[in-house]
Amino acid sequence: MKTIGFKQIMVLGCWALAFLAGSCGRADIDPYDSKDKIWFTQKNDDNVAVNDILRSFSLYPGAETLDVTFQVNLIGSVTDYDRTYAAVVVDSLTTAVPSEYEIHPMVLHAGKVSDELRITLKKSERLQSEEVKLTLYIVANEAFDPGYSNSLQVCVRFNDITTCPEWWTEDVANAYFGPYSKEKFEAFYDYSGRNDIEGLQPSELRKLLLGFKEYIRENNITEADGSEMIIPVY
Q1: In Å, what is the CA distance from 204 to each residue of 83, 176, 198, 199, 208?
Q2: Computed from CA positions of residues 43, 48, 51, 55, in that sequence, does the dihedral angle turn out positive or negative?
Q3: Does the pLDDT value for residue 24 go beyond 80?
Q4: Residue 1's pLDDT band (boundaries 50, 70, 90)?
Q5: Which residue has the higher pLDDT, 181 or 7?
Q6: Mind listing the pLDDT tens digit for each residue in 120-143?
Q7: What structural domains and CATH numbers belong to the chain?
Q8: Residue 15 above 60 pLDDT?
Q9: pLDDT of 163 strictly over 50
Q10: For the chain, what is the HEC assignment?
């Protein structure tokens, strides 16, 4: 009986592996699924949802427009040229009208694995009494297919309804700001350029409020009914 040498066994093994690899590749790779994909970030690094944004013009006194951004991400190859992706307005989940928003060009820029979709919200009179929303959904175009099925939709809700900011808690009111009012918030915004107190240490906040208190006095700023605007910090 003719025996097969070690070298012949190795050759036959290599041919077998090559055949199996080729077969698996043909079975597992869809030749029509070759486009790169795009998807929206759903949560940030702090596990906070970023696919559903709320904005109120009442927290940005004097602003007629507000910009919001959503992060889009690439599954596929980075290129050295810009590529346009596509997302459509979901009519059944949208109550804003086109005059109340502007969707900026949807571009994944050269060399990037993630980018931003920017939307400009526009103030309208009805926003003083009702909240509207705009919902977008990624769809296929010439450059990209939709990515992860549960990461294709984003929503922004917006209004101009006077509301106390979440950070203006009872403790903050008692120690620093006093009772909330629209007039006091707008005066604070005019003085400081801030609509929140994020990142301020207690000593920094106290210093800021002492300056604000003096600003109120120097400019004779009062509440809407003419009463004194109280800032309890000392």
Answers
A1: 45, 11, 11, 9, 6
A2: negative
A3: no
A4: very low
A5: 181
A6: 999 999 999 999 999 999 999 999
A7: 36-159 (2.60.40.1740), 170-218 (no CATH)
A8: no
A9: yes
A10: CCCCCHHHHHHHHHHHHHHHHHHHHHHHCCCCCCCEEEEECCECCCCCECCEEEEEHHHCCCCCEEEEEEEEEEECCCCCCCEECEEEECHHHCCCCHHHEEECCCEECCCCCEEEEEEEEECCHHHHCCCEEEEEEEECCCCEEECCCCCCEEEEEEECCCCCCCCCCHHHHHHHHCCCCHHHHHHHHHHHCCCCCCCCCHHHHHHHHHHHHHHHHHCCCECCCCCECCCCCC
> pLDDT at position 32, please?
54
